[in-house]
Amino acid sequence: MRTTVIKGHERPLTCLRYNSCGDLLFSCAKDHTPTVWYADNGQRFGTYRGHNGAVWCCDISRDSSRLITSSADQTAKLWDLKSGK
């Protein structure tokens, strides 16, 4: 087993999730920016901007096409994984 250190958030983490295949890792933090990483090497796949508060939780659809996030700004957002919209 190899250890990979992923650095990219400016504030403490609040949630981590793998997709069903285990190839993507999703992270949420108090820095308002949910992020997705390649699990095998720790490279950033994408960042989702639009929340105005800490992002507390996230989950990914079974087919890894959509991401849902919930935030302290009292919103939940449904994101298209590839486009970020």
Task: Describe this entry's structure for a reader.
- The chain is mainly beta and 85 residues long.
- The protein has one domain: Beta Barrel (Thrombin, subunit H).
- 0% of the residues lie in helices and 44% in strands.
- The protein is built from no helices and 7 strands.
- The strands form 2 sheets. A 4-stranded antiparallel β-sheet has the order 1-2-3-4, with no helix packed on it. Strands 5-6-7 form a 3-stranded antiparallel β-sheet, with no helix packed on it.
- A hairpin with a 5-residue loop joins strand 1 and strand 2 (24-29).
- It is globular, with a radius of gyration of 12 Å.
- It starts with 12 loop residues before the first strand and ends in a 5-residue tail after the last strand.
- Please state the average pLDDT score: 94
Q: Estimate nothing, just give the exact number of structural domains.
A: 1
Q: What summary fits the major beta sheet?
A: 4 strands, antiparallel
Q: Specify Rg, calculated over alpha carbons.
A: 12 Å
Question: CATH class, anyone?
Answer: Mainly Beta
Shape: globular
User: Helices and strands, in N-to-C order?
Assistant: EEEEEEE
Percent of residues in helical segments?
under 10%
CATH architecture heading: Beta Barrel
Figure out the total of helices. 0
Secondary structure class reads mainly beta
CATH topology: Thrombin, subunit H
Strand order of the largest sheet: 1-2-3-4
Strand content: 35-45%
Instruction: Tell me the distance between the termini.
Output: 35 Å
Residue runs with pLDDT of under 50 for 5 or more positions: none
Number-wise, the strands total 7
Keywords: Initiation factor, Protein biosynthesis, Repeat, WD repeat
WD repeats: 6-47, 48-85
Family: Belongs to the WD repeat STRAP family.
InterPro entries: WD40/YVTN_repeat-like_dom_sf, WD40_repeat_CS, WD40_repeat_dom_sf, WD40_rpt
